[in-house]
Amino acid sequence: MPAIAATPVTPSLLPTYKRAPMEFVRGEGVELIDADGKRYIDFTSGIAVNALGYGDAGLQEAIRHAAEGLIHVSNLYRTAPGEQLADKFVATSFADRVFFCNSGAEANEGAFKFARRWARGIGGPAKHEIFSLRGAFHGRLFGTVAATDRPQYRMPFRPLAGGISILERDLDDLVISVNAETTAAVILEPIQGEGGVRVLEPAFVQAVRELTRARNVALIFDEIQCGMGRTGHLYAYERLGVAPDILTLAKPIAAGLPMGAILMTEEIGAAIQAGDHGTTFGGGPFVASVALHVFDRLSDPALLAHVREMGTWFSDQLHGMSQRTGRIRAIRGAGLMWGFDVVEPAADIIGRARDAGLLLVSAGEHTIRILPPLVATRDDLARGLVILEGALAVG
Ligand SMILES: Cc1ncc(COP(=O)(O)O)c(C=O)c1O
Q1: Beta partners for residue 166, in sequence order
Q2: Mean pLDDT to the nearest integer, 347-361
Q3: Which of 50, 105, 113, 347 could bridge across to 45 with cysteines, CB 3.0–4.6 Å?
Q4: Tell me, what DSSP letter sits at residue 228?
Q5: Could you tell me which residues come within 8 angstroms of residue 364 by beta carbon, excluding any fewer than 6 positions away?
């Protein structure tokens, strides 16, 4: 199939993104459709956002319903959807309190502030350090980029926020560095997304939980990419057998409308006073009303069982493809979040798959990441896998 002729992106847009050449105009189910009518099976979900796929009738109805109500009133006043949504998160998780914001990075920045506020209360200003792990991605703002392990995202912007550093994904490193007097928090992704789809071992996370509890350090789980049903559990921590003190969510929670959330225990929440943190748009009635619908869809046990079942099947298919092609190694993932390493540049495979009608995303230069909509059927996934195998075999 011929490659698409590139139409130049308007110079009015700051060129921060390397965009693919096609322009999308519509979507249906798991497919995106470009301006020439060409269809693409989407194994990226807008980078783990579009869990319900495209053109979902229930989501459209929820948006219409929300649009008839209030859009925004500010956090000076009460509105029902945000309160109802917070109640749902509390009812289904370890958390007692919820703060809503607008993106993943903002959720993690807030989590860092809440952890520091709590830590200062019990240990004074010396108890402020935040540690993340090798391979982490927590966002692009000053605090979160300091916790993100990608030199190219960090170097041009130094000095980054202080008191935030990266440790190896190794218990010994944590035992040496995490300190009751000076450490406020440890943050980790139960499955590292951008860092290569690395599934943290339950035993490792359980040991980090024990260590942080013993040293009175807040444990933050960043489930911005792996949470809200992606692993086949509403929260990714459910498969780890331990809960954090703070949990951050974003990407799919309003199925494409910008929203983030910070969930926390009563102990952390009790340290936060009125005025300690805020954000103009966070948890507004329009987005929260849509998120109420999304929450019900993504917490549906039938949907979660579907994701687990598809995950098992998908893993088998990838292993079969690995044996047939010899071009896939180190398959990693859970539910509908998969990654595998390739020898040639991931960008080359992604380009060939795109020309053949399949959207993929990388997670490092030699890792392909697969994040289909959670509503994808076996047939949808199988069609994408056929294209993937073709794209792997050509190089
Ligand atoms: C695990 C994780 N944390 C944080 C972020 C940052 O989210 P956002 O791009 O909404 O700021 C991302 C985005 O990819 C992510 O995958």
Answers
A1: 132
A2: 98
A3: 50
A4: T
A5: 194, 195, 196, 346
User: How far is 162 from 196, CA to CA, in rounded Å?
Assistant: 26
How far is the C-alpha of 265 from the C-alpha of 272, rounded, in Å? Answer: 11
Q: pTM value? A: 0.97
To test the ligand 1 pocket, which listed residue (133, 138, 149, 200) has its Cβ within 8 A of the most ligand atoms? 138
Q: What's the rounded mean pLDDT across residues 307-314?
A: 98
pLDDT tens across 172-189, in order?
Answer: 999 999 999 999 999 999
- d(C-alpha 259, C-alpha 89), whole Å: 14
Peptide bond into 159 cis (omega under 30): yes
- Per-residue pLDDT tens for 102-159? 999 999 999 999 999 999 999 999 999 999 999 999 999 999 999 999 999 999 999 9
Query: Could you tell me how many helices (H) and strands (E) the chain has, helices first?
Result: 13, 17
- 372 and 322 in contact (C-beta within 8 Å)? no
**Domains and their CATH numbers in the chain:** 24-58+301-394 (3.90.1150.10), 69-298 (3.40.640.10)
Distance 225 CA to ligand 1 centre (A): 7
Name the pairing type of β-strands 260-264 and 198-199. Answer: unpaired
Tokens of residue 378, six digits: 């076996």
Strand order in the sheet with 183-188: 97-101, 260-264, 246-249, 218-222, 183-188, 129-133, 164-167
Choosing from 108, 112, 142, 251 the residue with most ligand 1 atoms within 8 A of its CB, the one to mutate for a pocket test is: 251
Tell me what the mean pLDDT of segment 197-201 comes to. 98
Distance between CA atoms of 395 and 97, rounded to whole angstroms?
A: 51
Within 6 A (CB) of ligand 1 lie: 47, 103-105, 108, 137-139, 189, 193-194, 222, 224-225, 250
Q: What is the mean pLDDT of residues 210-237?
A: 98
Tokens of 85: 């949504």
